[in-house]
Amino acid sequence: MRWHGRGTGRPPAEPLWRCHRLWAPVGGDRGALDGAARLRFQGAARRSIRAHRPLRRPGYGRGTALGARLSVTAFKLARIEREEGPIALLTIDNGEDWTKPNVFGPEAFDSLEARLDELEAGDWVGMVLTGKPFVFCAGADIKRFVGVDPDAARAGSRAGHQLFGRIRELPYPTLAAVNGACLGGGVEIALHCDFRTISSGVRHFACPEVFLGLFPAWGGTQLAPRIAGPEAAIRFIVTNPLRQNRMLTGSEACDLGLVDVVLEPAEFLDDSIAFLFQRTRAGATGPRDSLSEGSGANDAIERARRQLDDSLHGATPAPYVALDLIEGASRWSIEEGYAAEEDAIAGLLPGRQAQASLYAFDLVERRAKRDVGKPDVETRPVRKVGIVGAGLMASQLATLFLRRLEVPIAIRDLDQEIVDRAIGSIHADLESQVQKGRYDEGKARFLGSLVTGGTTYDHFADCDLVLEAVFEEMSVKQQVFADVEAVVSPQCVLATNTSSLSITEMASELAHPERVVGLHFFNPVAVLPLVELIQTPDTDEVALATAWEVAKTLRKRPVLVKDAPAFVVNRVLTRMTTVLMDALENGNTVDETDEAILRLGLPMAPSVLLQMVGPRVANHVLHTLNESYPDRFPLSQTLANYAEGGDEIALRGDGRRTVEEIQAAALEAIADEVHHMLEEGVVASAEDIDTALLLGAGWPFFMGGVTKYLDQTGMSVRLFGQTLAETRAAAPA
Fold first, then answer.
1. What burial letters (b/e) apply to 632-664, b meaning 16+ CB within 10 Å?
2. This prediction's pTM
3. Catalytic site residue 188?
4. Using one digit for the tens of pLDDT, what is the confidence trace for 233-251?
């Protein structure tokens, strides 16, 4: 029997728990936590929790490749004697430091099962579940999900339900003390406890499964709506993952109703135990067994479903399945909800979208961080950076380099007024960081003082890296490099942000072409993490490695690309655009061409993307590619009209196609271009192309970039007789 009755608590119209902090009322009391909150354990009990004292430091879970398979995670049980009786302190710990998070796999579940036997048999008066310093739990070991069959998926979900359900049925009050990063299964085990505290230092609290083509299958879809209500559950489980996998801070998790109180890190564990006893003395209860019929679940579900249709067009099933399960929580018992999760995950996890998402996750969270292709040489220090150009893109780049490298920045343009405007925008950005609390005023002033600008190159002489971001015209860029080379040292790395031009040609007249590289950033610079790092036949390893390190210091993900027209992302997107322009010029509408691509689940309609990139830029890239590959990249009069500011579609035929035919033609064109890039050795493997599209164009995880999708659907085998993943063997090193 439970320590309290189910179905009790506040009326459905009220939130189950209010979100209190130490300085706010607790349990209706206007003061801080009572004296028990300040009680410090004596003797052996004090020593038993001493390992948790480092929790006073902030920054939980930062910089971690979450979900990686690491050392075996175990549940460690300690006994804390209190006046009320013995408390079970259950700590999730893999024996590693905070950079290697706890994850759940079969070994962790075996450990939990053994501890549950002790918890069910002991004389405990309460249980507190927490994590090792800085990390609560990063969820399941998702590497084990690759290639699973339906039976294994169902069994894995059922194992979590059985074990976490035993925590929920313990005959005394339980509390999850979320001391650090808490994701996926970590959230779900916490939801099975009666109460949840969270440290104010937590920056990662989320259920990201929908982002990975899955859903929380260890009770999350059933307990979140019971605890926080259906609208909060939808936002947390469905909406946030689809918004660039948005994660909550501790305070935000409390505001959403998923945790009961935010506590400061300094004495987090002690205060969490005090909170548990304070709430139980007050007669507070844990989660309800079911939602009221009047809880508003149906309206919230229907709104969310319409939003999914607008954004995803049914391209991936996971968010829809999650909504169905959240909706079911209003009428199912918890056991029925568990069974529904098990049935759903058995169908979803082995499916195309989930497996593509796992592949994409591995690319961007693991492979891209392994520096694939980076030369193993000593890099040059970069103590000052020059930016040639002061337009919008150049200003964004200067701001990024200043904030991340914190070195002097020299800016040059032809017009001093343009330079002054760029410097003003940088200062405005620094001021905004002060307003957001990220910088103090002293640091903002210091960084602002590092920026200089002018119309000559006199202040460039001591630069270690110069990046040009001027007009996309070869002669202009060649002149910039010639002028810069005349004033900088022979060791200074020269980089270009060109989107399509030949870097080899750009550097051909220089005395030291070996120090020239491409650093192609994507707009908006502050948001998109990709940098195409372009190597010419002349680029030496030191220059390449130095540029690579700079990109990483900028918190970007470099993908190594050989010098070729339009590199990777723009080449793929432009090939797709040629199909869409052909459809428009043969009688299709913009709505039809947009719909053909949006049905794939891409985040932005092609017509909107064209306006954001700029028709002039897109037409320039098309001309560059047409010069090298005229058969595959025919010029478009319609795009030329757009580039000149018009909106006229240049009709040239009556070959109108269905939306499905346009989509098929676009995919075949993309597949053909990817195959050409692999055969030409533009990149080393299909994985590089997928990484670039995921990080630079925002293509969805559930497509795995694009080559995974083409391989999964059989198109690459039909067109080329082998998968694009296998084509890597044909690409030169």
1. bbeebebbbbbbeeeeebeeeeeeebebeebbe
2. 0.86
3. yes
4. 999 999 999 998 999 999 9
